[in-house]
Design goal:
single chain, Immunoglobulin-like, five-stranded antiparallel sheet, 13 strands
Length: 176
């Protein structure tokens, strides 16, 4: 029987080794999950697009570089953040008291911007197409100024009086 006991031990011993709890070296490390929320993006219209006095039958353009006449917006937000810019443009200016309109148009090069690194309105950083979506980066100080010009087309029989319509610039962070 002593041989049987040894035989039994040879069978039980390996099974017990697998059932014993294992002790391994363990280590751990911690990291932080972080996020930064962009500062509020703000925009303000600082100058209306002013065509001034127009003559019936004579088209009148206003260039985006014309100080005091070109429309202007001021944008501020997170430095170097990319923003999308979308213009909502009228196809006519409406008479303030009569249901009469005067055609207005905006060419693909009628808007520009400066992010603080250019020469301002007279020598801006770049050109924007007001008829399409645009994406640009705010300057290193988180600012941008946008200007727009356009052309009115008064008819030969255009009614006298004042005309106006909204020109809207919508901006949003792109996340890029």
């Amino acid at each position: 029987m002593p041989g049987r006991k040894l035989h039994f031990l040879w069978i039980i011993a390996p099974v017990c080794v697998f059932l014993l709890p294992s002790a391994y070296a363990q280590e751990s490390a911690t990291i932080q999950a972080t996020a930064s929320v962009s500062t509020t993006l703000s925009i303000s219209g600082t100058q209306d697009l002013r065509f001034g006095v127009v003559t019936p039958g004579v088209n009148k353009p206003v260039d985006k570089t014309t100080i005091g006449s070109a429309g202007e917006w001021y944008i501020s937000g997170t430095a170097n953040a990319e923003i999308s810019m979308t213009f909502t443009l009228p196809d006519s200016l409406q008479h303030t008291t009569n249901p009469v309109g005067m055609n207005v148009a905006f060419a693909a090069t009628d808007a520009s911007f400066d992010d603080g690194s250019g020469g301002g309105q007279a020598a801006p950083v770049g050109v924007l197409n007001p008829n399409a979506g645009n994406a640009e980066r705010l300057g290193v100080t988180g600012i941008m100024t946008v200007w727009i010009g356009g052309t009115v087309f008064p008819s030969v029989s255009q009614s006298g009086g004042d005309y106006s319509s909204d020109v809207v610039l919508t901006v949003a962070y792109t996340g890029s």
